[in-house]
User: What shape does this take?
Amino acid sequence: MGLGAKVVERRGKPPRINYKWDPETDILTGSVKGGSRQGDGLTGSVELEGVDGSFILLDVLGGSIRGVEVVVWPDVRTVGSLEPPQRTEDGDVVLPGRQSQPSVAAVEVDTALTIETNAAESVFRVRLGPSRKAVSVRVAEGLLVELDEREELAGLWLLDVPPFPHEEPAL
Assistant: This one.
């Protein structure tokens, strides 16, 4: 099952996503600041669950992605030359609500999840399902969303992720 989405025009400059690590759980959380667009789309959470038990949560408000949490990581492959796409559209990606169940506040999508990172672990590419042609949309400074030709969510790019906080040994 895919997750339908559409690109809509953004008014004003893109908001910023701030990433934070929880060193005890290895959870990476990203929270979008500013640019709160209130639309008619889904409000609630979207759980992207991998076949290996990994999962990522998207916090959605009025159809717009307002947060990302990588809760259970799939195997992460390091690609030294991983660079975000140079060609991106600026806009908002809206996850529509379901007309048959307008009050649904949680959606679960079962898919294969793969994650790649650069050597510095500052860029993460999350792919949903098989590799396919996609358009990249900058929904926030630091967050790109990929949509495939069927207008379904194909992936995410998490940019400018801070380093994982390693605890200093006690002296």
User: Anything to note?
Assistant: The two ends are 52 Å apart (CA to CA). The first strand starts at residue 6 and ends at 8. The chain has a mean pLDDT of 87.
